[in-house]
Amino acid sequence: MNLIAIKAIYVYEMTRFFRTLLQSFISPVISTSLYFVVFGGAIGSRIETVEGISYGAFIVPGLIMLSVMTQSTANASFGIYFPKFIGTVYELLSAPVSYVEILIGYVGAAATKALLVGLIILGTAFLFVDLQIAHPIAMMAFLVMTCFSFSLLGFIIGIWARSFEQLQLIPLLVITPLVFLGGSFYSVSMLPPIWQSITMFNPVVYLISGFRWAFFDSAEVSIGLSLFAIALFTGVCIAIIGWIFKTGYRLKS
Amino acid sequence: MSGERMSAIVSVKDVTKTYDGGFTALKGVSLDIEQGEILALLGPNGAGKTTLISVICGMVNATSGTVEVGGYDIVEKFRGARSLIGLVPQELSLEPFETVLNSVKFSRGLFGKPRDDDYIERTLRQLSLWDKKDARVKELSGGMKRRVLIAKALSHEPRVLFLDEPSAGVDVELRKDMWEIVRGLREDGVTIILTTHYIEEAEAIADRVGVINGGEILLVKDKAELMSQMGQKQLTIELHQPVTQMPEALSGYNLSIGNDGYCLEYSYDTRGDRTGITSLLSDLAAQGLMLKDVSTSQSSLEDIFVGLVEGAA
Ligand SMILES: Nc1ncnc2c1ncn2[C@@H]1O[C@H](COP(=O)(O)OP(=O)(O)OP(=O)(O)O)[C@@H](O)[C@H]1O
Ligand SMILES: [Mg+2]
């Protein structure tokens, strides 16, 4: 393992992140606050409770998941797409680093950024609602796993993309709808039965449910199933990345 | 080509490259680069220079053939091979928002070398970039960006340095500086491969010259040897009275008549012990021809190069 190289990539990426500190941190805080004002305050005041939890608190896990998933994907996809776009990828390809090291560097940095954003949103949430976390360690574990798995997905998108449009296509067309329909802002049990069945094909449901369990100790699907879903998702991403690296797909000609 | 060289640090064997679109950019290239030499790869646009460098450095997969750098196969033992290599690409590919110093430090880290601020400072100073170390790359001129690329390539102390068209977009002054740096590196034992369109560049700094065209290496020769082997010299003799016909006694010489008979052109090979000039001049005098002026000219690498490339086309 070329640990120095992994560190170099990681630090370089994190520097980029801190250079754009304002966008990186302020914008999630502002958008979260808006969500709380609109959903928690205006709408939530008429909803009372969902499954015995105040609506303001109920949406916190979904809100964090929404941000963390989009942030991870965006960070990682941009991180590897940008060097391809400006041509500096030559340096990665000509350096004595293996693909695994490149992956660890980029995905590690993207996941770290997303994790920080997730924690900041959690902190912001405490300002708006009365919140208790039933299983803090499980909560962190879910958060970290989600950051990593969606950073892996982002890495794949970044390698696949040939333009900035394509870079945004998948997050826009796939991830955002899946997250919104995955029960971020409502309980799946509130849906009509047929939609409940359809929703079960949405992998994000399992992630949000598991994460919500860590907060409130109650879940729509079993926690084991949630863990299985996240493991499966991570496994599929790793398999795709393995194939990309084996073939040099869209990295080398 | 270069035959059995003992000390090849880069050894390219039968490398072909066919790009996805079906275009074959390298058609079986074999090339041994000796430790410590400066090799200039000369070739027109699209000859395959960048493709060859990209295969050696790992940006492009060869379709067939093998490459070894310092005895390491570039695929099987890529870490060993790539640790030895520094690359200055043809394109000015740099992250625009990063500072010069960070960019260069990143390169060193990426190659697995432990931090060495002194070495980085020396390198930047040598390239007159130390003043600009905190400037963002996008604030630099093109020539400065080229130097940042060189600094990045040198940051990890390579033993083999590839310079892909180092003088593109660089003024005469900087080009001279760069040649100085290149010579200095060679003194430290670094092997240097540069590509260029400029014959003067090859002529000025290379030890050996390789000519590549259409994905094939046409020749690799010591520069001096190349110039003397292929370099025909021309002796131009101007006459007071024109000759209409070549005198019988001079038919043994490789002479041609020019300028309506006022001029005789004699081509000879500088390699030969006997150039035949002495006997030619005395034979001319015997014929009663009055010489007005005599001059010689030697063909440059450029003539050789143009001859080769046209011959191959
Ligand atoms: N990625 C690619 N896909 C398809 N064809 C390519 C690719 N890169 C280069 N080529 C083709 O391969 C040939 C050799 O290109 P290369 O860049 O190696 O030439 P070069 O000798 O470096 O030229 P120049 O002096 O212009 O830099 C060209 O015909 C080029 O169009
Ligand atoms: Mg080129």
Outline:
The complex is a heterodimer of chains A (253) and B (313). Chain A is mainly α and 253 residues long.
Q: How many β-strand stretches of chain B?
A: 14
Q: What's the number of helices of chain B?
A: 10
Number of domains of chain A: 1
Radius of gyration of chain A: 19 Å
Provide mean pLDDT of chain A, rounded.
Answer: 88
> In order across it, which strands form the biggest sheet of chain B?
6-7-8-3-9-10
Can you walk through the features of this model?
The complex is a heterodimer of chains A (253) and B (313). Chain A is built from 10 helices and 2 strands. Chain A is mostly helical and 253 residues long. In chain A, α2 crosses α5 (99-128) and α3 (55-86) packs across α9. The two termini of chain A are 25 Å apart. With 313 residues, chain B is an alpha/beta fold. Chain B has 2 domains: 8-228, Rossmann fold (3-Layer(aba) Sandwich), CATH 3.40.50; 231-312, Alpha-Beta Plaits. Chain B has helices at residues 49-57, 78-83, 100-110, 117-126, 142-154, 172-187, 199-205, 223-230, 277-286, 301-312, and strands at residues 8-18, 24-34, 38-42, 64-69, 72-73, 85-88, 160-164, 191-196, 208-213, 216-222, 232-239, 255-258, 263-269, 291-298. In chain B, α3 (100-110) packs parallel to α5 (142-154). The longest helix of chain B has 16 residues, at 172-187. Chain B is elongated and about 80 Å long. The two termini of chain B are 20 Å apart.
Write the layout of secondary structure elements.
The complex is a heterodimer of chains A (253) and B (313).
Chain A: H1 3-19, H2 21-47, E1 49-50, E2 53-54, H3 55-86, H4 89-94, H5 99-128, H6 136-160, H7 164-180, H8 193-199, H9 203-216, H10 223-247
Antiparallel strand pairs in A: 1-2
Helix pairs in contact in A: 1-5, 2-3, 2-5, 3-5, 3-6, 3-7, 3-9, 5-6, 6-9, 6-10, 9-10
Chain B: E1 8-18, E2 24-34, E3 38-42, H1 49-57, E4 64-69, E5 72-73, H2 78-83, E6 85-88, H3 100-110, H4 117-126, H5 142-154, E7 160-164, H6 172-187, E8 191-196, H7 199-205, E9 208-213, E10 216-222, H8 223-230, E11 232-239, E12 255-258, E13 263-269, H9 277-286, E14 291-298, H10 301-312
Parallel strand pairs in B: 3-8, 3-9, 6-7, 7-8
Antiparallel strand pairs in B: 1-2, 1-4, 4-5, 9-10, 11-13, 11-14, 12-13
Helix pairs in contact in B: 3-5
Bound molecules: adenosine-5'-triphosphate and magnesium ion (MG).
Adenosine-5'-triphosphate binds at residues 19, 21, 23, 25, 43, 45-51, 90 of chain B.
